[in-house]
Design a protein that fits this description.
The complex is a heterodimer. By secondary structure, chain A is an alpha/beta fold. Chain A has seven helices and 13 strands. Chain A has a nine-stranded mixed beta sheet with strand order 9-8-7-10-6-1-4-5-11, with helices on both faces. In chain A, strands 2-3 form a two-stranded antiparallel ribbon. In chain A, strand 8 and strand 9 form a beta hairpin. The longest helix of chain A is centred in the N-terminal third of the chain and has 17 residues. Chain A is globular, with a radius of gyration of 22 Å. In chain A, 50% of the residues are buried. In chain B, strand 5 and strand 6 form a beta hairpin. Helix content of chain B is 29%, strand content 28%. Chain B is an alpha/beta fold. Chain B has nine helices and 15 strands. The longest helix of chain B has 17 residues. Classes of the chains: A alpha/beta, B alpha/beta. Chains A and B meet through helix 1, helix 3, helix 4, strand 7 and strand 8 of A and helix 4, helix 5, strand 5, strand 6 and strand 7 of B.
Protein backbone atom coordinates (compact mmCIF):
# COMPACT_ATOMS: atom_id res chain seq x y z
CA UNK A 1 0.00 0.00 0.00
CA UNK A 2 1.10 3.53 -0.61
CA UNK A 3 -0.14 6.01 1.96
CA UNK A 4 0.22 9.78 1.83
CA UNK A 5 0.05 11.54 5.19
CA UNK A 6 -0.74 15.26 5.23
CA UNK A 7 1.36 16.98 7.88
CA UNK A 8 1.79 20.59 8.89
CA UNK A 9 4.45 22.32 10.96
CA UNK A 10 2.76 24.43 13.65
CA UNK A 11 4.09 26.70 16.39
CA UNK A 12 4.86 24.48 19.38
CA UNK A 13 1.83 24.97 21.68
CA UNK A 14 3.98 24.02 24.66
CA UNK A 15 6.33 26.95 23.98
CA UNK A 16 3.33 29.32 24.10
CA UNK A 17 5.26 31.87 22.03
CA UNK A 18 2.77 32.23 19.17
CA UNK A 19 2.10 35.72 17.90
CA UNK A 20 0.88 37.60 14.85
CA UNK A 21 3.26 39.71 12.78
CA UNK A 22 2.58 43.35 11.82
CA UNK A 23 0.58 42.07 8.83
CA UNK A 24 -1.73 40.25 11.30
CA UNK A 25 -0.61 36.90 9.91
CA UNK A 26 0.98 34.17 12.02
CA UNK A 27 4.61 35.06 12.67
CA UNK A 28 6.16 31.65 12.01
CA UNK A 29 9.60 32.85 13.07
CA UNK A 30 8.41 33.76 16.58
CA UNK A 31 7.98 30.23 17.81
CA UNK A 32 9.73 26.87 17.45
CA UNK A 33 7.83 24.62 15.01
CA UNK A 34 6.70 21.06 15.66
CA UNK A 35 4.69 18.54 13.66
CA UNK A 36 0.99 19.19 14.37
CA UNK A 37 0.05 16.79 17.18
CA UNK A 38 -3.04 15.40 15.43
CA UNK A 39 -1.00 14.67 12.29
CA UNK A 40 1.20 12.35 14.35
CA UNK A 41 -1.84 10.15 15.01
CA UNK A 42 -2.38 9.94 11.25
CA UNK A 43 1.25 9.01 10.73
CA UNK A 44 1.12 6.38 13.47
CA UNK A 45 -1.95 4.88 11.79
CA UNK A 46 -0.09 4.85 8.47
CA UNK A 47 2.92 3.16 10.06
CA UNK A 48 0.74 0.42 11.56
CA UNK A 49 -0.96 -0.12 8.19
CA UNK A 50 2.28 -0.41 6.24
CA UNK A 51 3.67 -2.74 8.91
CA UNK A 52 0.63 -4.97 8.42
CA UNK A 53 0.22 -4.71 4.66
CA UNK A 54 3.64 -3.58 3.41
CA UNK A 55 4.17 -0.44 1.39
CA UNK A 56 5.46 3.08 1.71
CA UNK A 57 4.51 6.36 3.36
CA UNK A 58 4.96 9.77 1.77
CA UNK A 59 4.59 12.86 3.93
CA UNK A 60 3.05 15.84 2.18
CA UNK A 61 3.58 19.28 3.68
CA UNK A 62 2.87 22.79 2.47
CA UNK A 63 5.05 25.18 4.44
CA UNK A 64 7.82 27.74 4.14
CA UNK A 65 11.21 26.29 3.13
CA UNK A 66 12.14 25.64 6.79
CA UNK A 67 9.29 23.12 6.96
CA UNK A 68 11.72 20.30 6.16
CA UNK A 69 13.14 20.52 9.71
CA UNK A 70 9.91 19.32 11.31
CA UNK A 71 9.42 16.74 8.54
CA UNK A 72 12.65 15.04 9.70
CA UNK A 73 11.02 14.05 12.99
CA UNK A 74 8.11 12.48 11.13
CA UNK A 75 10.59 10.71 8.85
CA UNK A 76 12.40 9.46 11.97
CA UNK A 77 9.13 7.87 13.14
CA UNK A 78 9.31 5.76 10.00
CA UNK A 79 7.82 7.54 6.97
CA UNK A 80 9.58 6.70 3.71
CA UNK A 81 9.99 10.12 2.15
CA UNK A 82 8.67 13.65 2.22
CA UNK A 83 7.37 16.18 -0.26
CA UNK A 84 7.54 19.83 0.78
CA UNK A 85 5.55 22.30 -1.29
CA UNK A 86 7.29 25.62 -0.63
CA UNK A 87 6.89 28.77 -2.65
CA UNK A 88 7.18 32.42 -1.63
CA UNK A 89 3.83 33.04 -3.35
CA UNK A 90 2.11 30.80 -0.77
CA UNK A 91 2.71 33.14 2.18
CA UNK A 92 -0.61 34.13 3.73
CA UNK A 93 -2.55 31.27 2.13
CA UNK A 94 -6.07 30.60 3.34
CA UNK A 95 -7.66 27.16 3.67
CA UNK A 96 -8.81 27.36 0.05
CA UNK A 97 -5.29 27.92 -1.33
CA UNK A 98 -3.94 25.22 0.96
CA UNK A 99 -6.55 22.75 -0.28
CA UNK A 100 -5.90 23.59 -3.93
CA UNK A 101 -2.14 23.16 -3.50
CA UNK A 102 -2.40 19.87 -1.60
CA UNK A 103 -4.91 18.52 -4.14
CA UNK A 104 -2.69 19.53 -7.08
CA UNK A 105 0.33 17.84 -5.49
CA UNK A 106 -1.65 14.67 -4.76
CA UNK A 107 -2.78 14.71 -8.39
CA UNK A 108 0.74 13.71 -9.47
CA UNK A 109 1.06 10.87 -6.95
CA UNK A 110 -0.17 7.29 -6.92
CA UNK A 111 -1.60 6.20 -3.57
CA UNK A 112 -4.17 3.96 -1.91
CA UNK A 113 -4.96 6.19 1.05
CA UNK A 114 -4.48 9.78 2.11
CA UNK A 115 -4.50 10.23 5.90
CA UNK A 116 -4.92 13.56 7.67
CA UNK A 117 -5.13 14.72 11.30
CA UNK A 118 -8.39 15.96 12.79
CA UNK A 119 -7.28 19.59 12.89
CA UNK A 120 -4.23 21.75 13.45
CA UNK A 121 -3.30 23.45 16.69
CA UNK A 122 -2.65 26.78 14.93
CA UNK A 123 -5.56 27.32 12.51
CA UNK A 124 -7.73 24.73 14.18
CA UNK A 125 -10.35 24.61 11.45
CA UNK A 126 -10.19 20.97 10.45
CA UNK A 127 -11.73 21.90 7.09
CA UNK A 128 -8.85 21.26 4.69
CA UNK A 129 -9.11 17.43 4.46
CA UNK A 130 -12.77 17.52 3.32
CA UNK A 131 -11.92 20.26 0.81
CA UNK A 132 -8.99 18.25 -0.60
CA UNK A 133 -11.14 15.12 -0.91
CA UNK A 134 -13.87 17.11 -2.65
CA UNK A 135 -11.46 18.74 -5.12
CA UNK A 136 -10.00 15.31 -6.00
CA UNK A 137 -13.42 13.57 -5.95
CA UNK A 138 -12.01 11.09 -3.42
CA UNK A 139 -14.27 9.22 -0.98
CA UNK A 140 -14.00 11.06 2.35
CA UNK A 141 -14.12 9.16 5.64
CA UNK A 142 -13.99 11.33 8.76
CA UNK A 143 -13.41 10.79 12.47
CA UNK A 144 -11.65 7.43 12.09
CA UNK A 145 -11.17 5.27 15.17
CA UNK A 146 -10.14 2.15 13.24
CA UNK A 147 -8.95 1.62 9.64
CA UNK A 148 -9.21 -1.75 7.91
CA UNK A 149 -8.10 -1.82 4.29
CA UNK A 150 -8.71 -4.80 2.04
CA UNK A 151 -6.05 -4.24 -0.61
CA UNK A 152 -7.12 -7.29 -2.65
CA UNK A 153 -10.66 -5.96 -2.95
CA UNK A 154 -9.45 -2.37 -3.32
CA UNK A 155 -11.72 -1.22 -0.48
CA UNK A 156 -11.30 0.23 2.99
CA UNK A 157 -13.53 0.02 6.05
CA UNK A 158 -13.42 2.68 8.73
CA UNK A 159 -15.00 2.84 12.14
CA UNK A 160 -16.02 6.49 12.36
CA UNK A 161 -17.02 8.15 15.64
CA UNK A 162 -20.51 9.63 15.82
CA UNK A 163 -22.09 11.49 18.74
CA UNK A 164 -23.93 8.31 19.78
CA UNK A 165 -21.36 5.64 18.97
CA UNK A 166 -19.83 4.88 15.61
CA UNK A 167 -20.64 4.23 11.96
CA UNK A 168 -18.96 1.47 10.03
CA UNK A 169 -18.07 3.10 6.69
CA UNK A 170 -16.84 1.47 3.50
CA UNK A 171 -15.40 3.04 0.37
CA UNK A 172 -13.27 2.09 -2.61
CA UNK A 173 -9.60 3.09 -2.49
CA UNK A 174 -8.03 5.53 -3.11
CA UNK A 175 -9.79 7.38 -0.32
CA UNK A 176 -9.04 10.16 2.15
CA UNK A 177 -9.40 9.41 5.88
CA UNK A 178 -9.31 11.83 8.80
CA UNK A 179 -7.69 10.18 11.82
CA UNK A 180 -8.42 10.56 15.52
CA UNK A 181 -6.37 9.85 18.58
CA UNK A 182 -8.26 6.57 19.07
CA UNK A 183 -5.99 5.04 16.41
CA UNK A 184 -3.18 4.90 18.93
CA UNK A 185 -0.42 6.85 20.61
CA UNK A 186 2.29 8.02 18.19
CA UNK A 187 5.58 6.19 18.65
CA UNK A 188 8.78 7.92 19.63
CA UNK A 189 11.46 7.88 16.95
CA UNK A 190 14.15 5.30 17.68
CA UNK A 191 17.82 6.25 17.48
CA UNK A 192 18.04 4.09 14.38
CA UNK A 193 15.05 5.92 12.94
CA UNK A 194 16.61 9.29 13.67
CA UNK A 195 19.86 8.24 11.95
CA UNK A 196 17.97 6.85 8.96
CA UNK A 197 15.86 9.99 8.62
CA UNK A 198 18.94 12.10 7.90
CA UNK A 199 19.38 10.49 4.53
CA UNK A 200 15.71 10.19 3.58
CA UNK A 201 14.55 12.22 0.63
CA UNK A 202 12.54 15.42 1.07
CA UNK A 203 11.61 16.61 -2.40
CA UNK A 204 10.77 20.30 -2.69
CA UNK A 205 8.07 21.39 -5.12
CA UNK A 206 7.26 24.90 -6.24
CA UNK A 207 3.91 26.05 -7.57
CA UNK A 208 5.36 25.71 -11.08
CA UNK A 209 6.23 22.05 -10.37
CA UNK A 210 2.66 21.20 -9.36
CA UNK A 211 1.04 23.29 -12.07
CA UNK A 212 -0.74 25.83 -9.87
CA UNK A 213 -0.88 29.47 -11.03
CA UNK A 214 0.89 31.63 -8.44
CA UNK A 215 -1.71 34.36 -8.99
CA UNK A 216 -4.54 31.99 -7.96
CA UNK A 217 -3.23 31.24 -4.45
CA UNK A 218 -1.53 32.88 -1.49
CA UNK A 219 -2.04 36.00 0.58
CA UNK A 220 -2.96 38.32 -2.30
CA UNK A 221 -6.11 36.35 -3.08
CA UNK A 222 -6.86 35.14 0.46
CA UNK A 223 -10.60 34.91 1.04
CA UNK A 224 -10.28 35.99 4.67
CA UNK A 225 -8.26 38.52 6.58
CA UNK A 226 -7.68 39.41 10.21
CA UNK A 227 -8.70 43.02 10.76
CA UNK A 228 -8.29 43.39 14.49
CA UNK A 229 -6.92 41.61 17.53
CA UNK A 230 -7.44 42.04 21.23
CA UNK A 231 -6.51 40.37 24.48
CA UNK A 232 -9.24 38.24 26.01
CA UNK A 233 -10.79 39.68 29.15
CA UNK A 234 -8.74 38.56 32.13
CA UNK A 235 -10.38 36.07 34.46
CA UNK A 236 -10.85 37.38 37.98
CA UNK A 237 -8.53 36.35 40.79
CA UNK A 238 -8.67 32.77 42.03
CA UNK A 239 -10.35 32.21 45.37
CA UNK A 240 -8.45 29.49 47.22
CA UNK A 241 -10.12 27.42 49.92
CA UNK A 242 -8.19 25.23 52.34
CA UNK A 243 -9.76 23.31 55.20
CA UNK A 244 -11.76 20.18 55.79
CA UNK A 245 -13.55 18.34 53.01
CA UNK A 246 -16.91 19.58 54.30
CA UNK A 247 -15.69 23.18 54.32
CA UNK A 248 -14.41 22.78 50.76
CA UNK A 249 -17.74 21.28 49.63
CA UNK A 250 -19.73 24.03 51.31
CA UNK A 251 -17.53 26.67 49.68
CA UNK A 252 -18.27 25.19 46.25
CA UNK A 253 -22.02 25.05 46.83
CA UNK A 254 -22.06 28.65 48.14
CA UNK A 255 -19.95 29.84 45.19
CA UNK A 256 -22.21 28.16 42.61
CA UNK A 257 -25.33 29.46 44.31
CA UNK A 258 -23.94 32.99 44.38
CA UNK A 259 -23.30 32.77 40.62
CA UNK A 260 -26.80 31.31 40.16
CA UNK A 261 -25.43 28.18 38.52
CA UNK A 262 -27.34 25.95 40.95
CA UNK B 1 -26.79 39.19 -4.38
CA UNK B 2 -26.24 38.15 -0.82
CA UNK B 3 -28.08 35.88 1.55
CA UNK B 4 -27.58 34.18 4.88
CA UNK B 5 -27.85 30.38 4.93
CA UNK B 6 -27.84 27.72 7.61
CA UNK B 7 -27.20 24.12 6.60
CA UNK B 8 -29.03 21.96 9.12
CA UNK B 9 -27.03 19.32 10.98
CA UNK B 10 -29.05 16.39 12.22
CA UNK B 11 -29.03 14.07 15.21
CA UNK B 12 -28.96 10.32 14.69
CA UNK B 13 -32.78 10.15 14.83
CA UNK B 14 -33.23 12.79 12.12
CA UNK B 15 -34.10 15.61 14.51
CA UNK B 16 -32.35 18.98 14.33
CA UNK B 17 -29.02 19.30 16.17
CA UNK B 18 -28.92 22.01 18.79
CA UNK B 19 -25.97 23.73 17.09
CA UNK B 20 -28.22 24.37 14.07
CA UNK B 21 -30.78 26.12 16.29
CA UNK B 22 -27.96 28.38 17.47
CA UNK B 23 -26.73 28.88 13.89
CA UNK B 24 -30.28 29.76 12.82
CA UNK B 25 -30.70 32.25 15.66
CA UNK B 26 -27.43 33.89 14.61
CA UNK B 27 -28.49 33.88 10.94
CA UNK B 28 -31.71 35.69 11.85
CA UNK B 29 -29.84 38.42 13.70
CA UNK B 30 -27.34 38.83 10.81
CA UNK B 31 -30.29 39.05 8.40
CA UNK B 32 -31.85 41.80 10.53
CA UNK B 33 -28.57 43.78 10.47
CA UNK B 34 -27.78 43.22 6.79
CA UNK B 35 -31.20 43.30 5.16
CA UNK B 36 -30.44 39.96 3.49
CA UNK B 37 -32.80 37.00 3.75
CA UNK B 38 -31.98 34.19 6.17
CA UNK B 39 -32.86 30.67 5.03
CA UNK B 40 -32.23 27.14 6.19
CA UNK B 41 -31.36 24.10 4.08
CA UNK B 42 -32.20 20.57 5.21
CA UNK B 43 -30.75 17.67 3.22
CA UNK B 44 -31.95 14.25 4.33
CA UNK B 45 -33.79 11.17 3.10
CA UNK B 46 -36.73 12.52 5.11
CA UNK B 47 -36.07 16.22 5.76
CA UNK B 48 -39.57 16.95 7.14
CA UNK B 49 -38.99 16.59 10.92
CA UNK B 50 -35.80 18.69 11.02
CA UNK B 51 -37.30 21.23 8.58
CA UNK B 52 -40.28 21.74 10.88
CA UNK B 53 -37.92 22.34 13.79
CA UNK B 54 -35.69 24.70 11.80
CA UNK B 55 -38.69 26.69 10.57
CA UNK B 56 -39.30 27.72 14.17
CA UNK B 57 -36.11 29.78 13.90
CA UNK B 58 -36.02 31.00 10.28
CA UNK B 59 -38.51 32.66 7.92
CA UNK B 60 -37.72 30.18 5.14
CA UNK B 61 -36.46 26.59 5.02
CA UNK B 62 -35.56 24.79 1.81
CA UNK B 63 -35.71 21.00 1.96
CA UNK B 64 -33.91 18.59 -0.33
CA UNK B 65 -35.26 15.09 -0.13
CA UNK B 66 -32.21 12.96 -0.94
CA UNK B 67 -32.50 9.16 -0.62
CA UNK B 68 -28.70 8.85 -0.89
CA UNK B 69 -28.35 10.72 2.42
CA UNK B 70 -29.69 7.69 4.29
CA UNK B 71 -27.23 4.88 3.59
CA UNK B 72 -24.17 7.02 2.98
CA UNK B 73 -21.87 9.33 4.92
CA UNK B 74 -23.94 12.48 5.14
CA UNK B 75 -21.66 15.50 4.89
CA UNK B 76 -20.51 15.32 1.28
CA UNK B 77 -24.02 14.46 0.06
CA UNK B 78 -25.41 17.40 2.04
CA UNK B 79 -22.66 19.77 0.88
CA UNK B 80 -23.27 18.98 -2.78
CA UNK B 81 -27.05 19.38 -2.52
CA UNK B 82 -26.71 22.55 -0.43
CA UNK B 83 -24.28 24.04 -2.93
CA UNK B 84 -26.86 23.75 -5.69
CA UNK B 85 -29.47 25.50 -3.52
CA UNK B 86 -27.06 28.31 -2.61
CA UNK B 87 -25.70 28.68 -6.15
CA UNK B 88 -22.61 30.62 -7.19
CA UNK B 89 -22.96 33.67 -4.96
CA UNK B 90 -19.69 35.12 -3.63
CA UNK B 91 -21.70 37.22 -1.15
CA UNK B 92 -23.51 34.23 0.35
CA UNK B 93 -22.87 33.71 4.06
CA UNK B 94 -23.22 30.10 5.21
CA UNK B 95 -23.29 29.17 8.90
CA UNK B 96 -22.61 25.66 10.24
CA UNK B 97 -21.29 24.23 13.50
CA UNK B 98 -17.62 23.71 14.30
CA UNK B 99 -18.09 20.00 15.15
CA UNK B 100 -17.21 17.11 12.80
CA UNK B 101 -20.31 17.42 10.56
CA UNK B 102 -19.98 21.20 10.30
CA UNK B 103 -16.30 21.00 9.43
CA UNK B 104 -16.88 18.38 6.79
CA UNK B 105 -19.71 20.40 5.27
CA UNK B 106 -17.61 23.58 5.35
CA UNK B 107 -14.60 21.97 3.68
CA UNK B 108 -16.60 20.25 0.96
CA UNK B 109 -18.81 23.29 0.33
CA UNK B 110 -15.76 25.57 0.06
CA UNK B 111 -14.29 23.29 -2.60
CA UNK B 112 -17.61 23.24 -4.48
CA UNK B 113 -18.44 26.97 -4.27
CA UNK B 114 -15.04 28.67 -3.85
CA UNK B 115 -16.31 30.41 -0.70
CA UNK B 116 -13.68 31.03 1.98
CA UNK B 117 -14.01 29.73 5.55
CA UNK B 118 -13.64 31.34 8.97
CA UNK B 119 -13.53 28.70 11.67
CA UNK B 120 -14.48 28.27 15.32
CA UNK B 121 -16.30 31.57 15.65
CA UNK B 122 -17.08 32.67 19.18
CA UNK B 123 -18.97 35.75 17.99
CA UNK B 124 -20.30 37.06 14.67
CA UNK B 125 -21.50 40.61 13.95
CA UNK B 126 -22.52 42.36 10.74
CA UNK B 127 -20.37 45.20 9.38
CA UNK B 128 -20.05 47.09 6.10
CA UNK B 129 -17.57 44.41 5.05
CA UNK B 130 -20.05 41.61 5.71
CA UNK B 131 -19.82 39.29 8.70
CA UNK B 132 -17.11 40.09 11.21
CA UNK B 133 -16.03 36.94 12.94
CA UNK B 134 -14.33 36.63 16.30
CA UNK B 135 -12.23 33.63 17.21
CA UNK B 136 -9.93 32.68 20.04
CA UNK B 137 -6.41 31.72 18.91
CA UNK B 138 -3.07 30.63 20.34
CA UNK B 139 -4.55 28.66 23.18
CA UNK B 140 -6.80 31.55 24.19
CA UNK B 141 -4.06 34.17 24.40
CA UNK B 142 -5.55 36.31 21.66
CA UNK B 143 -8.93 37.08 20.12
CA UNK B 144 -8.91 37.91 16.43
CA UNK B 145 -11.62 39.56 14.36
CA UNK B 146 -11.69 38.58 10.68
CA UNK B 147 -13.73 39.38 7.60
CA UNK B 148 -14.19 37.83 4.16
CA UNK B 149 -12.56 39.61 1.20
CA UNK B 150 -15.59 38.77 -0.97
CA UNK B 151 -18.09 39.69 1.79
CA UNK B 152 -19.49 36.17 1.68
CA UNK B 153 -18.08 32.95 3.07
CA UNK B 154 -18.62 29.98 5.34
CA UNK B 155 -18.50 30.41 9.12
CA UNK B 156 -18.19 27.48 11.52
CA UNK B 157 -19.47 28.46 14.98
CA UNK B 158 -18.62 27.05 18.37
CA UNK B 159 -21.50 25.76 20.52
CA UNK B 160 -22.91 28.36 22.93
CA UNK B 161 -21.80 31.27 20.71
CA UNK B 162 -25.41 32.46 20.79
CA UNK B 163 -28.39 31.23 22.78
CA UNK B 164 -30.95 29.50 20.56
CA UNK B 165 -34.16 31.50 20.43
CA UNK B 166 -37.14 30.69 18.19
CA UNK B 167 -38.60 33.40 15.95
CA UNK B 168 -41.96 35.04 16.66
CA UNK B 169 -43.72 32.79 14.16
CA UNK B 170 -42.86 29.73 12.07
CA UNK B 171 -41.26 30.15 8.65
CA UNK B 172 -42.29 28.75 5.30
CA UNK B 173 -41.01 25.37 4.14
CA UNK B 174 -40.39 24.85 0.44
CA UNK B 175 -39.01 21.90 -1.46
CA UNK B 176 -36.12 21.99 -3.88
CA UNK B 177 -35.81 19.15 -6.37
CA UNK B 178 -32.27 18.68 -7.58
CA UNK B 179 -32.14 18.30 -11.36
CA UNK B 180 -28.86 16.44 -11.51
CA UNK B 181 -27.38 13.30 -9.97
CA UNK B 182 -24.77 13.57 -7.21
CA UNK B 183 -21.20 13.71 -8.52
CA UNK B 184 -19.14 13.31 -5.34
CA UNK B 185 -18.30 9.71 -4.46
CA UNK B 186 -20.54 8.18 -1.83
CA UNK B 187 -19.21 6.44 1.27
CA UNK B 188 -21.50 3.61 2.35
CA UNK B 189 -22.60 3.31 5.97
CA UNK B 190 -22.66 -0.47 6.54
CA UNK B 191 -23.76 -0.24 10.13
CA UNK B 192 -24.70 2.41 12.68
CA UNK B 193 -23.74 1.38 16.18
CA UNK B 194 -25.06 3.01 19.32
CA UNK B 195 -22.72 2.52 22.22
CA UNK B 196 -24.12 1.96 25.67
CA UNK B 197 -23.43 4.91 27.87
CA UNK B 198 -22.76 7.25 24.96
CA UNK B 199 -23.43 10.55 26.64
CA UNK B 200 -24.93 13.75 25.25
CA UNK B 201 -22.31 15.70 23.30
CA UNK B 202 -20.14 17.44 25.87
CA UNK B 203 -19.76 20.50 23.60
CA UNK B 204 -23.40 21.33 24.23
CA UNK B 205 -23.50 20.73 27.98
CA UNK B 206 -24.27 23.65 30.28
CA UNK B 207 -22.29 22.03 33.10
CA UNK B 208 -19.27 19.77 32.68
CA UNK B 209 -17.67 17.79 35.48
CA UNK B 210 -14.29 16.66 34.29
CA UNK B 211 -11.68 14.28 35.63
CA UNK B 212 -7.93 14.06 35.17
CA UNK B 213 -5.04 11.90 36.23
CA UNK B 214 -5.92 12.48 39.88
CA UNK B 215 -9.19 10.56 39.44
CA UNK B 216 -7.01 7.48 39.26
CA UNK B 217 -9.27 4.78 37.80
CA UNK B 218 -12.46 3.81 36.02
CA UNK B 219 -14.08 3.58 39.47
CA UNK B 220 -12.87 7.11 40.15
CA UNK B 221 -14.87 8.23 37.13
CA UNK B 222 -18.01 6.76 38.73
CA UNK B 223 -17.52 9.46 41.33
CA UNK B 224 -17.09 12.09 38.60
CA UNK B 225 -20.31 10.82 36.99
CA UNK B 226 -22.17 11.08 40.33
CA UNK B 227 -21.27 14.75 40.63
CA UNK B 228 -22.25 15.32 37.00
CA UNK B 229 -25.61 13.65 37.65
CA UNK B 230 -26.17 15.71 40.80
CA UNK B 231 -25.51 18.92 38.87
CA UNK B 232 -27.34 17.85 35.71
CA UNK B 233 -24.11 18.02 33.73
CA UNK B 234 -21.97 15.92 31.41
CA UNK B 235 -18.71 14.10 32.13
CA UNK B 236 -15.46 15.28 30.57
CA UNK B 237 -11.86 14.16 30.88
CA UNK B 238 -8.25 15.04 30.18
CA UNK B 239 -6.13 13.22 27.65
CA UNK B 240 -4.25 11.43 30.47
CA UNK B 241 -7.52 9.92 31.74
CA UNK B 242 -8.55 8.89 28.22
CA UNK B 243 -5.12 7.42 27.43
CA UNK B 244 -5.34 5.41 30.67
CA UNK B 245 -8.59 3.90 29.37
CA UNK B 246 -10.75 5.21 32.22
CA UNK B 247 -13.21 6.97 29.91
CA UNK B 248 -13.92 7.05 26.13
CA UNK B 249 -12.18 9.43 23.76
CA UNK B 250 -15.50 11.12 22.99
CA UNK B 251 -15.32 12.77 26.42
CA UNK B 252 -11.82 14.19 25.96
CA UNK B 253 -11.42 17.95 26.29
CA UNK B 254 -8.37 19.81 25.10
CA UNK B 255 -6.03 20.37 22.21
CA UNK B 256 -6.51 16.92 20.67
CA UNK B 257 -10.05 16.54 21.97
CA UNK B 258 -13.03 18.85 22.14
CA UNK B 259 -13.22 22.55 22.85
CA UNK B 260 -16.02 23.37 25.27
CA UNK B 261 -17.58 26.52 26.67
CA UNK B 262 -19.97 25.47 29.43
CA UNK B 263 -21.44 27.75 32.05
CA UNK B 264 -19.64 25.72 34.75
CA UNK B 265 -16.50 23.61 34.43
CA UNK B 266 -15.77 21.56 37.55
CA UNK B 267 -12.26 20.12 37.30
CA UNK B 268 -11.47 17.13 39.52
CA UNK B 269 -7.85 16.07 39.86
CA UNK B 270 -6.85 18.11 36.81
CA UNK B 271 -3.54 19.98 36.93
CA UNK B 272 -4.48 22.33 34.07
CA UNK B 273 -1.67 21.75 31.56
CA UNK B 274 -1.82 24.05 28.53
CA UNK B 275 -3.06 21.21 26.27
CA UNK B 276 -6.12 20.83 28.49
CA UNK B 277 -6.54 24.52 29.24
CA UNK B 278 -7.07 25.41 25.57
CA UNK B 279 -10.13 23.16 25.55
CA UNK B 280 -12.00 24.71 28.48
CA UNK B 281 -10.61 28.11 29.46
CA UNK B 282 -13.56 30.06 28.04
CA UNK B 283 -15.97 28.35 30.45
CA UNK B 284 -18.12 30.83 32.33
CA UNK B 285 -17.04 29.62 35.76
CA UNK B 286 -14.15 27.26 36.54
CA UNK B 287 -14.08 25.44 39.87
CA UNK B 288 -11.30 23.00 40.70
CA UNK B 289 -10.59 20.46 43.39
CA UNK B 290 -6.92 19.63 43.54
CA UNK B 291 -4.43 18.52 46.13
CA UNK B 292 -1.69 20.75 44.75
CA UNK B 293 -2.23 24.50 45.38
CA UNK B 294 0.58 25.23 42.92
CA UNK B 295 -0.95 23.32 39.98
CA UNK B 296 -1.33 25.45 36.83
CA UNK B 297 -5.12 25.37 37.22
CA UNK B 298 -4.72 27.61 40.28
CA UNK B 299 -3.90 30.40 37.82
CA UNK B 300 -7.15 30.30 35.87
CA UNK B 301 -9.77 28.68 38.12
CA UNK B 302 -12.27 31.02 39.77
CA UNK B 303 -12.41 28.81 42.84
CA UNK B 304 -9.83 26.24 43.88
CA UNK B 305 -10.52 23.90 46.75
CA UNK B 306 -7.24 22.47 47.95
CA UNK B 307 -7.83 18.91 49.09
CA UNK B 308 -8.20 15.25 48.27
CA UNK B 309 -10.98 14.88 45.71
CA UNK B 310 -11.93 11.50 47.21
CA UNK B 311 -12.80 13.35 50.43
CA UNK B 312 -14.15 16.62 49.02
CA UNK B 313 -16.35 15.08 46.31
CA UNK B 314 -18.37 12.82 48.65
CA UNK B 315 -18.85 15.85 50.91
CA UNK B 316 -19.93 17.86 47.87
CA UNK B 317 -22.50 15.20 46.94
CA UNK B 318 -23.91 15.40 50.46
CA UNK B 319 -23.99 19.20 50.36
CA UNK B 320 -25.71 19.22 46.96
CA UNK B 321 -28.16 16.55 48.10
CA UNK B 322 -29.16 18.43 51.23
CA UNK B 323 -29.66 21.57 49.13
CA UNK B 324 -32.02 20.03 46.60
CA UNK B 325 -33.51 17.46 48.96
Amino acid sequence: MHIVVLTKPVPDPAAAAERLGPDLRLDRAASPAVVNANDEYALEAALKLTEAFGGEITLLTMAPAGGSDTMRKALAMGATRGILVADPALAGSDTRSTSVVLAATLGDLAYDLVLAGADTSDGGGGVVPAAVATLLRLPYLGNAAKIEPDPAAGRVRVRSFTPIGFDLLEAPMPALIVCTQALGEPRYPSLKGIMAARSKEIATRTLGDIGVDAAAVGGAVASTRVVETRKPPARGATTMVRGTAAEGADAIVAFLAERRII
Amino acid sequence: MGAIWVIAELNGDGSLARISMEAATLARSLAASSGFDASGIVVAADPAPAAAELAAYLPRVVTVSEPEAAGNAWASVAAERASSVIGRDPAAVVIVGSGPDGRDIAGALSALTDLGILVNATGVAWTDAGPSVEMSVFGGKLITTSTFSARGGIVTIRPNTVAAEPAAGPGAIERASPASALTLPRVAVLERVEEAGAAAPIEEARIIVSGGRGVGSTQGFDLVASVAAALGGAVGATRAAVDAGWIPYAQQIGQTGKIVKPELYLALGISGAIQHKVGMQTAGTIVAINRDPDAPIAEFADLLVVGDLFEVVPALLVALGSRTG
